[in-house]
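Case 118 in the screening queue. Each case pairs one protein sequence with one candidate compound; here the compound is zinc ion. For every case the pipeline is the same: read the inputs, emit a complex structure as tokens, and attach any notable structural observations.

Predict complex for case 118.
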Amino acid sequence: MKKQCPECGDTYNGRADKKFCSDSCRSAHHNKLNSDATNFIRKINNILRKNRRILAELNPDGKKKMHKDRLLTKGFDFKYFSSIYTTKDNRVYHFVYDQGYTELDNDWFLLVENKKGS
Ligand SMILES: [Zn+2]
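Case 118 output:
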């Protein structure tokens, strides 16, 4: 059965369950998939680290009111955070590790810090 290797493009004879022309093409292909996953994780980790740094810089004393525009200007990305905490009175805090925020009115946010880290 003539097949085409998805890694190098060569045609080869192989059984139906054989997907690559050689072991080296098979491992090259899997390494590539792995590094895509690694890059994706790295990209998100970088965004989270940046978000945390921005919050920490803007909130050196552990509690501060901040306008959304200031956060956006710094490059803060609201899509990425590490946890959500909802208080008994239904106030929602988003945390990026130890740095958190909750939305107030009119695009203002209250920045907070979780000093216990939990
Ligand atoms: Zn190949």
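Case 118 observations:
- Helices lie at 23-58, 68-74.
- The pocket of zinc ion is lined by residues 5, 7-8, 10, 20-22, 25 (CB under 6 Å).
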